[in-house]
Amino acid sequence: MSSAALCFRTAKAYTRNSSKQSLLLARTFASTTRRYEINKVLPSAAEALKDMKPNSTVLCGGFGLCGVPDTLIDEVINKPEITGITAVSNNAGTDTSGLGKLLKTKQIKKMIASYIGENKTFEKMYLTGEVELELTPQGTLAERCASGGKGIPAFYTPAAFGTVVQTGDLPLQNNPDGTPKHYSYPKDVKVFDGKQYLLEESIKGDYAFVKAYKADKLGNCQFRLTANNFNGAMGRNAKITIVEAEHIVEPGDIPPEAVHLPGIYVKRVIQSTTPKNIEKYTFAKDPNDPEAKAALGSGETAAKREKIVRRAAKEFKNGMYANLGIGMPMLAPAFVGPEVEVQLQSENGILGLGPYPVKGKEDADLINAGKETVTLKPGAAVFGSEESFGMIRSGRVNLTILGAMQVSGNGDLANWMLPGKIKGFGGAMDLVSNPEKTKVVVTMEHTDKKGNAKIVKQCAFPLTGKACVSMIITELGVFNVDFATGLTLIEIADGVTVEEIKSKTEAPFKVADDLKPML
């Protein structure tokens, strides 16, 4: 029989028996009234962690105390045999919460983080060699986790070029006396479109601990407000992602468009049993309230800072997207008139940041990059940390205002470390990584507490970024910065002379022909 005839006979047979074939297929997928269900929900954290081994790499979601999987962290404490953990997280909570508790029990061997912050236990353990620390810019950390979950082994980023992150001069571990024991390694640098980028390797987790607002039996997850932060990127990464959810719901109860972490990434789901915490309760105050003015300090310090902040507010232009650093920069919006509309971006995942809440309206799932309670403006958007820093590195943010310890005459910035003290990079290295598109303005007092110049020929402190600062605003005046030719004094404060500024400025500067009074 020819092949054509055989095909024809087969087609006739199939047509004759098509009803039987359909019935057979239907019975294959639904042969009973109830089919076996996918159910990833486990009865307890103990059950979810029963196979966890020592020396695991654990990715832990959260930012400050927001969106932290404390139920899972507490269960690790109940398993003292689990030691040698490499914990990957933006920060380690506080001395008494989050991963800080696992540092105290010495179950963590190494941290990969962007920020130590106010965690004195973490800082002390790092400085005395009790724990290793791979300090990583916040946006780079988010992308290392996100890329690891996408099968991408490495990527190039502009963040941290020209800093100790790139050169390998960052201590990974110290001796008990605080001297460096082991250093990081130099990063490969390549040029793309005339700009230098450094190579970062992705992170691969054994476990991811994720905190969700809702999760269903299929593992689909929904995050709430800024509790998304690192949870999404980390949840997509690990071999075993374990979600603790405030609410466990049936499949379909989370609308498809509200699923932020699809169930394909999630292995186990448990009920979250720990209360949510707030690190910094911050409330709205009447501008005339003495407590509101106390944020600037007191006496002469307050007068200096108010002058700086008022001038910084003049840099906001209608329609801008802006990101503000912790401290003085966060106070600038209070001095912006109603005729100027600016969208504030916060690197922990907000576009459309609003003012502080009134007392009683605070929300543990809604904080800014300084871990303070905040509100959202109408039309605001929330998203994960990896998307937030994508906006930043790509230059979508028009303006960033930061504090500084030192700025050099050619625009180098140092603002993350003083000798014997270390807070970490946070998001600053990413925020200054695209100065061609994002204007970087520094607000700071002209000298330090000892009277030393902070505008210097060359920064003595470790750099946050090279040739990145476009403008410096102090209580004495305003400088424009040209990365090639240096500083130009363009505005001078009332009652201040050029000679006084020269006496308090180490870096040389030119004086503009049309020197203006400080706005």
From TrEMBL:
Query: So where's the catalytic machinery, residue-wise?
Result: E347
Q: What is its EC number?
A: 2.8.3.5
Enzyme class, first EC level, given as a word? transferase
Keywords for this entry?
A: Mitochondrion, Transferase
Q: What does this protein do?
A: Key enzyme for ketone body catabolism. Transfers the CoA moiety from succinate to acetoacetate. Formation of the enzyme-CoA intermediate proceeds via an unstable anhydride species formed between the carboxylate groups of the enzyme and substrate.
The protein's matches in SMART domains, at most eight in alphabetical order, are given as: CoA_trans (SM00882)
Name it.
Answer: Succinyl-CoA:3-ketoacid-coenzyme A transferase
The pathway is:
Ketone metabolism; succinyl-CoA degradation; acetoacetyl-CoA from succinyl-CoA: step 1/1
Keyword Transferase among record annotations: yes
Q: Which residues cross the membrane?
A: none
Q: Name one GO biological process term.
A: ketone body catabolic process
Q: Which Gene3D superfamilies match?
A: Glutaconate Coenzyme A-transferase
Name the family the entry cites.
Belongs to the 3-oxoacid CoA-transferase family.
Q: Do you know which InterPro entries this protein is assigned to? A: 3-oxoacid_CoA-transf_A, 3-oxoacid_CoA-transf_B, 3-oxoacid_CoA-transferase, CoA_trans_fam_I, CoA_transf_AS, NagB/RpiA_transferase-like
PANTHER family assigned: KETOACID-COENZYME A TRANSFERASE, SUCCINYL-COA:3-KETOACID-COENZYME A TRANSFERASE
Reaction(s) the record says it catalyses: a 3-oxo acid + succinyl-CoA = a 3-oxoacyl-CoA + succinate
Q: Name one GO molecular function term.
A: succinyl-CoA:3-oxo-acid CoA-transferase activity
